[in-house]
Amino acid sequence: MKRREFLKGAAAAGITAMTAGALSTDIPKSDAQRTREALMRTPQRRGKSVAGYADKPMDRIRTGHIGVGARGPGHLAHALVLDGVEVTAICDIHKPSLDAAVKRVTDAGRPAPRTFGNGEDDFMRMLEMDNLDVVYIATPWQDHARMAIAAMKAGKHALVEVPLALTIEEMWDIVSTAEETQRHCMMLENVNYGREELLCLHMCRLGLFGDLLHAEGAYIHDLRGQMFEVGHGTGSWRTLHYAARNGNLYPTHGLGPIAQYMNICRGDRFDYMSSVGSPSRARAIFAKTDLPDDNPHKNLKFVCGDINTTIIKTVLGRSLMVQWDEQLPRPYNRLNLIQGTNGVWGGFPNRFVLEGETPNTDSWVQGGDLTPIFEKYEHPLWKRMGEEAQRNGGHGGMDFIMNWRVMTCLREGQPLDQNVYEGAAWSAVSPLSEWSVANRGQSIDFPDFTRGEWAKTAPLGIVS
Fold it and tell me: What's the pTM value of the predicted model, to 2 decimals?
């Protein structure tokens, strides 16, 4: 939906108070209207595969941060305490956020970084800096692709908040640019570094569950309160997506970990998927009953189904179920279930069954009874970093472990834990779900962003 089209529709609905800040960028046209053939088109490779790619070791890492209003401050805080990391630049068009970020750097006893905030394209000036190695991108979803591509073309590694991009075309552009420039482009899926998710990954790598057959993930999180944000804040732009798109709009928090358990893009890949959604009700009700009359979101027409369910089949025949719901009155849940021939782990609440280890297979081991399981199978990374991660914060420590791990890999010249193909595959669920929902739940094939490299790319090992 282009900005002028949205404003025209808004005026027709009597919405006249929308501030410019909430419309800082355009929402790309939904892939729901594209043909199956167009979505499946594989562009010609312009470079070489970055599966297993590692850059030369870096004694110090100079970071730039685009977007320091919501997720960005957490990445900035961790950059200020990680060994060998220097913050050299910050970009944000919201001056109070920019000023607060600079103060955070100087309060830590570091030199003031260069600042950029003169319009939506000022980040391009930042990318011209020579003393810049890595760029964090924590901006509205619709900006991720162009910023990541520009960063890599400028010779910088790109660390991108979720999702990696919004359309299949954007994802191919990111993949092709990473291959052409030989730069890292990692989607910052922090949930892969949660304690429970690392525990489960460790047990999968040890082969405890046997052959993996099925997994379930979700992002169920009541975020209706974001609709109060106008002009600035996540809700000022995120709310517009629910009025423009209908599908599984935010799949990767639940999908990332279970895809990593199953070695997606590293021995298996997503083959095809089908997606259906419920009617759209909850946001309209909330807008009518809770938003003040002068809130421009009050009269939006919401089209996105309140809950979406997506079923994925892999090339090796395994199945995944991914749900998304950011508006219904329901407790937070990511599901995090992995089922194998020898046992199962389920999340929210954590519970476990393992042939030969738990008393029987028709009742869960859960609660305090899981303590011995954590002691026995705790992931080495959490054993090493868990206490420090919890001290430094970020969703129970997962954010800190993610940033520590990224910077450690870069400093040591090691491949990152998540490559650009994984970020693209996990993010592709959104545009493909929009197409499937618009076409009565028909199945649609996944692009193979690896162009066949998935079959010979080594799985992520048990890193410490």
Answer: 0.94
